[in-house]
Amino acid sequence: MDQVRGLPWKRTVLALLLFGTAFGYLEAAVVSYLRVLHEPARLRFHPGRPPGDLFPLLTLEQLRASGPVQTQTLPIEIGREAATIVMLAAIALAVAGNTGQWAAAFVIAFGAWDVTFYLFLKLVLDWPASLFTWDILFLIPVPWAGPVVAPVLVSVAMIVAGVWQLRSEARGEPVRIGAAHWAGILTGAAIIVFAFAMDYKNVMAGGLPQPFNWTVFALGLLTGVGSYAHAAVRQHSWASPCFDVGEGVETHGKDDA
Prior knowledge:
about 260 residues, mainly alpha, two-stranded antiparallel sheet, two-stranded antiparallel ribbon, about 65% helix, about 5% strand, globular, disordered C terminus
């Protein structure tokens, strides 16, 4: 069946990519406003800091000293980030017919949102200066930080895996993700989050980020991607039996002589 819950899978992917792209622009617009809002306080405590440098961050004490507006925006921003994940999960739920389709749709929308967010930031603010510019990625439950290229790599991998999953589902050969593969995918995700958040105490204290731990990040990315790729390869090998062309007899790779 060349459909995902009643929709052609290519149209579904296109809709998710369009949603993610529009959401990426919306996110970039919000960030542009937030930077204007916080810049006076940042200049007060870090005069002479180039506008494109996000670090050092303002500490909680510095936010409180800057007035109620600065402190009020923090819980609002955390709530906005949580709402972002809910929105991405909701659009995935709207097009999915099962858990596998939901996960695939979610990672496609998430990946498109994240990649286009940085593209639009570059257009709107001429930031980041390069793919290795550091960014604050998320605030829940603690601040995540890392070079821009790291989340972009994760997002590209998510989009590729999600499209492959929906394509396989539509062809009637869905990738069967067993408990072991899910464990590998979730473990990889947890390691990636750890790589982003491992320096959070220093960042929250107003320090400059420590060198990014690419080893931990690569371990997480390879664990997650490798687990899904193993499930996909295994499914493909099971779904592609060998045939004896001369006899037209299905052999499934075994010697029946």
